[in-house]
Amino acid sequence: ASFRRIADTDHKVGAFLALNEDGARKQAAELDAQLASGGERGLLFGLPGGLKDNMVTEGLRTTCGSRFLENYDPIYDATVVQKLRKAQSVTIGKNNMDEFAMGGSNENSAYRPARNPWNLERVPGGSSGGSAAAVAAGQVYFSLGSDTGGSIRQPAAYCGVVGLKPTYGLVSRFGLVAFASSLDQIGPITKNVEDTAYVLQAIAGHDERDSTSADVNIPDYLSALNGDVKGLRIGVPKEYFGEGIDPQVKEKVLEALKVFESMGAVWEEVSLPHTDYAVAAYYLLASSEASSNLARFDGVRYGVRAENPANLLDLYRRSRSEGFGAEVKRRIMLGTYALSSGYYDAYYKKAQQARTLIKRDFDQVFEQFDLIIGPTAPTTAFKLGEQINDPLTMYLNDICTIPVSLAGLPAISVPCGLADGMPVGLQIIGKPFDEPAVLRAAHAYE
Ligand code: GLN
């Protein structure tokens, strides 16, 4: 049914870059056989799922939305892929994305832009736009996305589905092609909060192959969904309703807060005073880390290689010039510049200091509040082509998601109504590793 749905819809939506048709049928047949011989059902038994194309899959093409990796068939599975298999879900294919997860509209995919199933003239968001579009279009029950500065939450908001960025370190990054290692985090995109809890349960947990993986006990996320938000204290940051917020988005978020009130929660306006510095700090830090992480793409070890190089430098130069798209090059140049000697203190170090202040803002609010709630993005999905030539405007879409990433906190986006026919996302932010509170509130609201 999943492949049929994809055949019927994906020529319009563009959510998949590769399909795992033979592999999936084989996997499904194995599950049937196991069940027939009295085996137990795994947590995600038989559920068709997608994977953003930056998670490596043994023998299944993994492009990261880039020409550079157009011929790359990995020789191993990412930890999340192994965990999904153990939970007995079936991998349907690899979802479209902005090249190397850099972008917020999917228009930076080197192959084709994914489109928003609610309105094909609009973007699905990004960079996990293919994952969100696939779930919204009913092609799969869930997909894994990755979120560095909003790339799970913002596309989930634009496509009217649920997306969770877990606490940094909760889900292993082993086998996730790195964009910005101190920020990257894998998480589920699903139709509802219960499904998110199931998928999170399957993929969370310590992994010795990822040195930043957190060694914490994994709670039972499903039992957190008990509907009880009575007495819950919610902080609502005034900075998330500033310049650039669509009045209709604001109205929907305020309506959602009324729903929380009616369930016995209380909310108050709070301040996260360093929010203004978040976008600048993020683009310096993420680009710096990216410039270093992407150094491995040299035309020798992975992917495409320029033809007939004159010498080694020519091989590097032409492979990288031909393999990377414009946005990736922009970030590599920005990051290399910010890290270069003489500029390090002025840019990278300053950005790290701003990151600390942003994290402290959250710590202070969490001394008095259980959760922070606001919009996921200041607007609904914009039209394809509308922002692609204006990177700064594109960067500002992430104003509500980036601070959370810099602080490493868990946050979910849940649908909270429509504005001019397009979905609006409500963002619920929690304390580190307090996914249970985030999921409980999101589930009670939804
Ligand atoms: N839009 C942001 C960027 O382009 C976030 C990307 C992400 O979270 N991967 O960097």
UniProtKB/TrEMBL annotation:
<keyword id="KW-0436">Ligase</keyword>
<keyword id="KW-0648">Protein biosynthesis</keyword>
<keyword id="KW-0547">Nucleotide-binding</keyword>
<keyword id="KW-0067">ATP-binding</keyword>
<dbReference type="GO" id="GO:0016874">
    <property type="term" value="F:ligase activity"/>
</dbReference>
<dbReference type="InterPro" id="IPR023631">
    <property type="entry name" value="Amidase_dom"/>
</dbReference>
<dbReference type="InterPro" id="IPR004412">
    <property type="entry name" value="GatA"/>
</dbReference>
<feature type="active site" description="Acyl-ester intermediate">
    <location>
        <position position="151"/>
    </location>
</feature>
<feature type="active site" description="Charge relay system">
    <location>
        <position position="127"/>
    </location>
</feature>
<dbReference type="InterPro" id="IPR036928">
    <property type="entry name" value="AS_sf"/>
</dbReference>
<dbReference type="InterPro" id="IPR020556">
    <property type="entry name" value="Amidase_CS"/>
</dbReference>
<protein>
    <recommendedName>
        <fullName>Glutamyl-tRNA(Gln) amidotransferase subunit A</fullName>
        <ecNumber>6.3.5.7</ecNumber>
    </recommendedName>
</protein>
<comment type="similarity">
    <text>Belongs to the amidase family. GatA subfamily.</text>
</comment>
<dbReference type="Pfam" id="PF01425">
    <property type="entry name" value="Amidase"/>
</dbReference>
<feature type="domain" description="Amidase">
    <location>
        <begin position="1"/>
        <end position="439"/>
    </location>
</feature>
<comment type="subunit">
    <text>Heterotrimer of A, B and C subunits.</text>
</comment>
<dbReference type="InterPro" id="IPR000120">
    <property type="entry name" value="Amidase"/>
</dbReference>
<comment type="function">
    <text>Allows the formation of correctly charged Gln-tRNA(Gln) through the transamidation of misacylated Glu-tRNA(Gln) in organisms which lack glutaminyl-tRNA synthetase. The reaction takes place in the presence of glutamine and ATP through an activated gamma-phospho-Glu-tRNA(Gln).</text>
</comment>
<feature type="active site" description="Charge relay system">
    <location>
        <position position="52"/>
    </location>
</feature>
